[in-house]
């Protein structure tokens, strides 16, 4: 008889238990959730690797998806149950996480799977031979990113001895040559109950789940040897260090890194706030000086602390277009290290302290998001560190922030892109954490409303949804009342105007939403941000030439006032000249910087083919522009045009709104008043665009891109099919078998699992909501020398599928996965307003998605294979790629 789990503590609704074998269990039930999140965290990462083992923890993470005794194909089994899953590795932890529609059977399956993965995973040489090239491809993708490369070099320079200086992804030589025996030793040493924390959040029965955890994990034994420990402490830095990375493409970037304590140290609270205070727009002094006033930088940022061990506080800056790095570097370092030309004010301190408190309040309303953060706290030493940080930030004074800035942000403690000797040592002693549990037992739970669980089936949603038309404005208005965690209300408003042919060239329209954050005619940008924080919510507006979407979220008590604030900024934005020039400058800079991006160059190569096939040129709405076209369009936009477009077109003539949650009194009246007062009767009415299918002949385009380790590859063909056609469901199911979902599809099996050519490959079949212009697309990335081999395998996979057809087992797995995905898409409060609006716009209700679910349930094997063979043509692809083929010529398959 196994000893019962020991209840250790409860904090903020999180229940901690400990099994006799040392496994830590954290349960975070949420009565309002309809999904469950499971995360098994192992306290092992790249910090635990030795010489010749760089990347071993991450490589082992990949291998642990190769099977366990009860599940031979883990991705396939996950997809069959509609489970979304993944795993990640960092310096201090490896975690395996999954989310799914709440089901006791699925939870039990995952508990059994994870208990076997802990000590009975398949770790074999043949799997390593296949997976090593996949990890190498992932490594090569990172080498395409100048910022990621700079980060790796910076860490290597900042840490002379500590393993934080090694990249978690590993080094090419170690990844390519690590023996399977070393991986097995690493696995056996670190994957053990007393080195793991199991986190379960969302919808589940705590008592029953704990019993199942005990049943699945309780009998597992720890190895006879003790857990491997690391003990390296990075000595104080005694002078500036520098690093330079030169690669083709990307944008200039300057990063200064300063050694700071581990996450458990009290100074991390002040450092956390310091980063926000320095750089957050618009009030951060670094942003105000270098972005807005001196215009030396396009962007600045700051922040960071340690994890399990001492880490880095980073300050970064992107030089503005035309500004030499040296012109920015000196003033920036003087501002950071001596506070020259900037002030860390009491007003900014209080503002960031309030924003930090709001962020934590919002986090507690999202157990799955909090569960993800808990895994990082576990890696840092204790899950309660999350709540300790909140308490310490609340207790901070401005003097604490000033003290840590003075102590840590010093030249001798800095790693940058140059080196200058110092006459004095100036070494900064980094305090160590002796007791990571200090102060944790004093933490107490803060009350929060729990909400209710919502049945996401369409007919259940139909029974709860209220469909209205607002009396004054005439807009459609949908309500879904429910109790939510933390009394959170979410909403979405869609407004539309005009006709596509008349407005497609209104490039000024794209700037308006970007400038809304600058405030209103009566509120400055900072006053606008402060008002949102006081109302305990926020909103975002996205817009184009023919409409806008407002997404808003906040607590019930202040929600109506938050909605009024959103309308105030939409109706009467400031649209200031300096912010417009900055946005225009940043947009142009990003476009120019993309000239060496592989995806951009691939698109540049293929666009003329599509334009010719469709018979369109510049000025036509369907014309695919060149990069120079887009640059010219942005250069031609001026602020007068932006303001004129807003004054003429932004309006509430047509649209719909939807809200979900504990709806406040007066919501409908306030919304109707704002909409009715924003009518512009003389505007041309919105006209829906109907996209018409036009055949595009097959062609191949390969583009040379210098100094890129990974090549991008796309295959695309146009299909004549509208979204309501009976074959649409059959093709969605066929696509899932070909390359949809996670790794359990034919393309992933052929190119990743068997071929080891790519980190990821996916196919997508998409239809237009209006018209019959559909498309089938396959995307992947490979080493340049493997381009032709990948194309040959893709072609063989498609032809095999057409010849063999989808099997009954594949159809059932795809059907289940897509139905689960559709259900999951209705499970979160945040997604429901958009779905309500989409239904209301078309005059539909929840019986419409129910009818589509029924189509998926009733689709037959004959229908799927008939549609597949009718529409998918292996000879019809437009193939395009971009890579460094001069350095690594493609090898003939």
Largest sheet: 7 strands, mixed
How far the N terminus sits from the C terminus, by CA atoms, comes to 59 Å
For the secondary structure, the number of strands is 23
Strand neighbour order, sheet with most strands? 1-2-3-7-4-6-5
How does the helix and strand content classify structurally? alpha+beta
- The shape, in one word, is globular
Helix content bin = 40-55%
Task: Point out poorly predicted stretches.
Answer: none
Mean pLDDT across every amino acid position: 93
Estimate the strand proportion: 15-25%
Number of helices: 32
What does this structure look like?
Helices cover 42% and strands 17% of the residues. It contains 32 helices and 23 strands. The longest helix has 19 residues, at 125-143. A hairpin with a 6-residue loop joins strand 21 and strand 22 (773-782). Strands 1-2-3-7-4-6-5 form a seven-stranded mixed sheet, with helices on both faces. It has a six-stranded mixed sheet with strand order 13-14-18-15-17-16, with helices on both faces. The protein has a five-stranded mixed sheet with strand order 8-12-9-11-10, sandwiched between helices. It is an alpha+beta fold. Helix 26 packs across helix 29.
